[in-house]
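step=predict obj=Pyridoxamine phosphate oxidase n=250
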Amino acid sequence: MVKFYPSLSHDLQTWALAQPIFFISSAPLTGSHVNLSPKGLPSTTFTIFSPTSCGYIDATGSGAETISHLYENRRATIMFCSFSASPRILRLFCTGRVVEWDRPEFDALLSKMGKRRIDGARAVLVFDIFKVQTSCGYGVPKISSSPQGDEGRAFEDRETLGHWASVKVERNEIAAYQVMNNACSLDGLPGLKSARRDGGEVLAVGDVMAGGRRVWGQKGALGVGLAIGMAVVLLAQYSTSFLGWAFLPE
């Protein structure tokens, strides 16, 4: 099912570039929005420089969410999925940077990617891959085998996901699978509560520990807060001393 790799193998590189579409997601450190964008034609816009590096040509669009998020925190996830008979999902967990069209490196990157300057291209987004994940893709529909598909639809559901789940239920293995795979996120955030309980976790304790990790993860903000607090205390002490000296009796 789910497998992790430190880099992108040659087979996965070939498979990714053969897909008709990929997606990129990013988010700010604070705020309400998480961005997810579809991108077409990986074979002509996407380049894999090495097993741990890739990039794509970013066309001018109606927003600049990915660019803004990369400038702020560099985090991004790129996803490919199969719509053919053989299911697969491929995720590339990355840190990225933006090379805008007016920077000297832009043309050099286009040349390295084997591309000419493209009208309307605003940047090349370059990514360092720190983790690769593959999973089954059973829940992704496939392109219909008939010209029109069922009821004129171009896509049809796979039967594999329901069959897989039915087998797990029949074997009484679904709860154990959830404990192993659904109790927390890749970053260690608490996940499915029933899986956490079945795994023996005390939810209140787990939530407190997760809160502590979340606060510690914002240690930069904590440092700024402490610095401001110390500055306020020092200023108050200085003000008190100055006022006391100013109003001493002559």
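step=describe
The longest helix spans residues 219-246.
step=end
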